[in-house]
Amino acid sequence: MQEQAIIKSSISKQIAEQLRNAIVSGRFKSGERLPTEDELATRYGVSRATVREALKRLAAQNLVRSRRGPAGGNFVNQPTHAELAESLSGAATLLVGLGALDIEEIVEARRTLQGGCLKLAVVNASQEQIQDVETALQLQKDPALSDEAFCDADVAFHRGLVDASNNGMVRFVMYSIIEALVPITNMVVSYVKDRREIIAFHEGLLLALQQRNEEGLESALDALLDYLMERFSVAQAQRKQHAS
After folding, report:
1. Residue 1: inside a domain, yes or no?
2. Are 187 and 236 in contact (CB under 8 A)?
3. Which residue pairs, CB below 8 angstroms and at least 24 apart, start in 50-54?
4. pLDDT value of residue 55
5. What's the pLDDT at 229?
6. Of 17, 26, 88, 239, which alpha carbon lies 20 to 30 A from 1's?
C-alpha cells in the first residue's frame, strides 16, 4: 500500500479517504485486519488520536469494525446492501425535501426499476423470501401500529420484494429508491389515513408473487403507484390546509 502525501488541513478526513480507497479497490479484503493505530500513525506522520478519528469516520460508514482482546484490532467490514444504500437514500430523501426531485420522477423510476425487479422475483424468489414478504404484510395489518411503525413495515414489505429478486445490484439501487419514498408514504398515511387501501394493494402484490404471475405483479405495482400519486396530491392539500 502506497500512501499519498498528506495535506495538513482535515488530516483525519484525508487518512480516512485513503484507507477507504484502499478498501474499495480491494487492497484490504473483507475481514482483513488493518495496520495498528501505531503503524498507521507512523506511516502518515500523525498522532494516534488523528488515526483514531480517521477510523471512526470509516466505522460510521460501516467499512471498519473494531474488536477488543489479544486478537483484536480494526477489521474491514462487509456492509449489507441496506447499509450501503443508506447514503444513497439519504441523498435522495434530501433532494426530495428540497424539491430537486419531483414525486413523478421518483414514482416513474420506481415503476421502471421495481417492475424489472419483480420480473426477477417471479423466477428467483425462494419460499422463505415469499414468507418474509407475507410476514411484513401481516405486521402492517396490526391496527395498533403507529403511523411511523406502519411505514417501517411498508419499507420491509417492499424490501422483501426486492430481496426476492436475488440480484445484489438491483437490491442496492432499489433500497435507496424505496427509502426516498418513505417521507411521501408517511405523508399519505398521516394525512389521508388510508391504510386499508395500501394493504389491499400489497395483498395483490403478494398473491401475484405467490402465483409466480409476472403480469399480475406488474399490474398490481402500477395500481399501487398510481394510487400513491393520486393520494399524495390529496395529502399535500390537507397538509397545506392544516398549516394555514
Report:
1. no
2. yes
3. 50/11, 50/12, 50/15, 51/12, 51/15, 53/12, 54/12, 54/13, 54/15, 54/16, 54/19
4. 92
5. 83
6. 88
Please compute Rg for the chain using Cα positions: 22
3-class SS of residue 61: coil
- For 69, the grid coordinates are 482482546
- What type of residue is 69? G
Are the beta carbons of 83 and 62 closer than 8 angstroms? yes
Tens-place pLDDT, residues 173-190: 787 777 666 666 666 666
Q: Which grid coordinates are listed for 140?
A: 402492517
Q: Which three cell numbers stand for residue 188?
A: 399519505
Same domain, 112 and 207: yes
Give the burial class of 217: count Cβ atoms within 10 A of its Cβ; 0-12 exposed, 13-18 middle, 19 or more buried.
Answer: buried
- The secondary structure of residue 10, as a DSSP letter, is T
CB-based burial label for 168 (10 Å; 0-12, 13-18, 19+) = exposed
Q: Which amino acid is at 221?
A: L
Residue pointed to by grid coordinates 426477477: 120
| Domains contained in the chain, number | 2
The model's pLDDT over 53-88, given as tens digits with 9 standing for 90+, comes to 999 988 887 788 888 877 788 998 876 666 665 656
82's CB contacts (< 8 A; 6+ apart) are 159, 175
**Distance between CA atoms of 113 and 60, rounded to whole angstroms?**
29
Inside any domain, residue 164: yes
Sequence-ordered alpha helix ranges (H) in the chain: 11-24, 37-44, 48-60, 81-97, 103-124, 127-140, 147-163, 168-180, 182-192, 195-210, 214-243
